[in-house]
Amino acid sequence: MRVKDTLNLGKTKFKMRGNLPVNEKKREDVWFENKVYEQRQKLNEGKPSFVLHDGPPYANGNIHMGHAMNKISKDIIVRYKSMSGFRSPYVPGWDTHGLPIEQQLTKEGHDRKKMSTAEFRKLCRDYALKQVDKQREDFKRLGVAAEWDNPYLTLQPSFEAEEIRTFAKMVELGLIYRGKKPVFWSWSSESAMAEAEVEYHDVTSPSAFYAERVSDGKGVLDQDTYFVVWTTTPWTIPASEGITIDAGFDYSVVKPAGDDRKFVIATDRLSYAAEQFGWQDVETIKTVRGQELENITALHPFDSDRKLVVMLGDFVTLDSGTGLVHTAPGFGEDDFRVGKEYGLDIFVPVDDRGYLTAEAGPDFEGVFYEDANEIALNKLKATNALLKQMDYTHSYPFDWRTKKPIIFRATPQWFASVDKIREQILDALKDVKFLPEWGQKRLHNMIRDRGDWVISRQRVWGVPLPIFYAEDGTPIMNGETIEHVAELFEKHGSDIWFEWDAKDLLPEGYTSEHSPNGTFTKETDIMDVWFDSGSSHQGVLAKRDYLKYPADLTLEGSDQYRGWFNSSLITSVAMSGHAPYKQVISQGFTLDGQGHKMSKSLGNTIVPADIIKKMGAEIIRLWVLSIDSSSDVRVSQDNFVKISDSYKKIRNTIRYLLANTADFDPQANTVAYADLQPEDRYMLVRFNELVKEIRQDYDQYNFIEIYKALMNYIITDLSAFYLDFAKDVVYIEPEDSLKRRSMQTVFYQILVGLTKLMTPVLPHTTEEIWQFLSEPEEFVQLAEMPEVQELSGAADLLAKWQTVKKLRSHVLKALEEARDQKMIGKSMEAKATLYLDEATKQVVDELNVDLRLILIVSQLEVRDLAEAPEDAASFDGQVAVQITPADGEVCERCRMTKTDVGSDEHFPTLCASCAAIVTKYYPEAVTEGFEEKIGRR
User: Quick check: bond before 412 cis, omega within 30?
Assistant: First the structure.
């Protein structure tokens, strides 16, 4: 027998290295085979519901780090709620319609114009479903628990039917109308765009200051006077219908030296303009108020037969330009609005692909709009109308899919009126909580300021607008026809809209006074995809009886304030009069380590699959816990390396606890709270505080604070404190001694509690731990969160132990100084003499704590502070510490330096305590002796 054999050296098969990339997948397979998610749902039947509604990601390509952050965040919340007394089903969803899928098929060589709509839609459907399968596997590999076998897809017939019914309700409320007004038009996609599909980039455009001659001055201006107009889109000049000014601005009529012409310009912009145009000796002939110039006409610079009217508008500023704005009602929202007020034509001489039409004039016909800028500028130069051309850098909208600039173009479109229900929407928003809180104001302002919603798209892969047209062109959309379409879609899917004749889609025998011959046609446009996903409260929450509407929570990226948060709010208020969610959490974007947007073309992307292959999904999950996702998050390989170190700390700490409870039976060996050793009782109280803290943070979705609390507890409370001295109990004391079982009791309770607390974040790891615990549930995911206990005297105990821990820190500092002076090596070679004031001494006495054990020294003496020698280290005027080498020899078993080593003749290298333990529990060692000396622990 060796001395080592008399120690309780814990053993466990829980490995130091988790081999996560391999073992996680095996564990996930076990979960799916055993239907752990379904078991959890069954356990929670009858409990209060908590529903997190999944905003659908777009089904295109493998997931990126933003997807991972989003889905893991949701999974943490849902797992926690499921273990905390709530029935919390999680139904994942996908957005499966839209232009990107059409574009992807085009890239693969499919020509939409060479096949039927039905054929092309089938290709789109097949592609979307493949992408759903791909992303579903990606999400499952992250350890996300969900109703994977029954997700919601916006292409599902049942979902499409509810979307149509949502549209019907908006028709009933008079919110749906057809109009011609400028919308975001993507020439690269040949379709109208929603505001949420637009992103802004800085561009440099050729701005122009040019002169337009007065035609009818209304007695205010002479005909040799010219309006100085400014534009940043010279290509739209062929569509110009007027000049907009501000009624309250002063305008100067001036004549520069050397020019026979007189010019009108805003007085506050005169000095700027004169400098830009190189005007000298500018004479101001008169000054007039803007309102005096209303309805004066000018000649179009390219067509003298066309007259431009001077109009008063509220969008003219004096920040730039001349105070006179070129106005083309077909190409801008402000232009359209003021043009309608003055009864102007809505002139749009540009086609779907961005090429100017014959209406723009022979010089422009067939020219791409960007190339038309140069033609317009040259024509202005030719007539001496161009006063100045200069580049102008400004923010400009782009198609977020094609990354090409878009134009504002007035086209006939279907709209959903926001204005009619704006106040209802804003009122509904007051009942919604936001995290961060500023989210409410952001969404409020977006709803307050947004225009009506363009819901029609000139594409084929989407849900058709359920609108028919009579023989005289009258739109047919009413409750009867739309509900009939909804029922057909529910049974057959929306493809039938493109396969069946209009008469077969209408209710049998349907007639209309607008179609005396009984002939009807169908709308060919589809719905905006934001209407698809924006109807999910009906297609999912209200449709599935185990969910609820409104949802308790939704969590998405901050871009959804103008996307899904926005569209679903509008449709929900229209449908039901309330928001579709009770609380909204928004997250920032994932950026690269330098704060740049991740892009495949830049080569700065970090793909979740790569991290999983190298480190495991648990590392990504722990990273999500560790970040403040309320703002943009920088992601780099270093992030995951650091998180991997944190994971190792967690794993190694758990391994130590498992190893040292391997012989502990919680049924037989648990020590009652009142009988615990003082240090163990304190650690149980301290852990109870951790449970309270972490559960509060879970309840408040405060992930980063959970991470901080967890890591601080493991590093500071366990590794640097409790486990630092624990070996002198769990290794040395008799196996079944009260002291050892007391510590094991707390070890085990901490193990079980920590495992449960970490399960929402690290389910693969906690299920591995669970196998080594003697708990009734087969899977930790089927257990409940630890409850905060009412432990007697907890507050007093925590306060007193703060004094002890502060005392310990003073001693550790003194030991370190003694080590630096080569007085001692390890702390077990030291004797510590403590000189304490009365208050500190009273706390120590009341706790009845074994200070020598806590301080990890071999010998300890406690005296009054007044007795402290001058060379003792003093701390706060309350404590003084003197470190000296301990007397005696080192015990081969406990490694303490004691004066009674060798006092038992059978064990000359052991102290009396260790000799007594060996004699009692290992009697064979008395007769046989030890084989060899063990090395130092």
Answer: no
Cα 879 to Cα 885: distance, rounded to the nearest angstrom: 20
Structure tokens at 270: 């005169």
Q: What percent of the chain has pLDDT over 90?
A: 85
Mean pLDDT score across all residues of the chain? 94
CA 130 – CA 61 distance, rounded (Å): 9
- What DSSP designation does 910 have? S
CA distance 462 to 510: 26
* Pairwise CA distance, residues 167 & 561, whole Å: 22
Residues 899-917 pLDDT 10s: 999 999 999 999 999 999 9
Cα separation of 930 and 925, whole Å?
6
313 in Cβ contact with 244 (< 8 Å): yes
Q: Is 76 left (phi over 0), alpha (psi -120 to 50) or beta?
A: alpha
Contact status, residue 528 vs residue 453, Cβ threshold 8 Å: yes
**Six token digits for residue 13:** 């098969």
Q: What is the DSSP letter of 107?
A: H
pLDDT of residue 112 exceeding 90, the answer is no
Outline where 355-421 has alpha helix (H). 369-382
Dist CA 233 CA 95 (whole Å): 36
Beta bridge partners of 309: 242, 297
Query: What pLDDT, on the 0 to 100 scale, is given for residue 194?
Result: 75
Specify the DSSP element, H or E, that contains 639: helix 637-659
Q: What is the mean pLDDT of residues 154-168?
A: 98
Q: How far apart are CA 689 and CA 753, in angstroms?
A: 12
Three-state secondary structure string covering 794-816: HHHHHHHHHHHHHHHHHHHHHHH
Q: How far is CA 74 from CA 93, 114, 618, 624, 672, in A?
A: 13, 43, 15, 11, 38
Joined together, the tokens standing for residue 810 give 């003073």
Token pair listed for 739: 């002291």
- For residue 176 the two structure tokens come to 């749906």
Cβ proximity of 856 and 828 under 8 Å: yes
Which structure tokens are listed for 473? 């062109």
Residue 813 CA, distance from chain mean position: 44
Q: Are 401 and 167 in contact (CB under 8 A)?
A: no
Q: Could you tell me which residues come within 8 angstroms of residue 33 by beta carbon, excluding any fewer than 6 positions away?
A: none
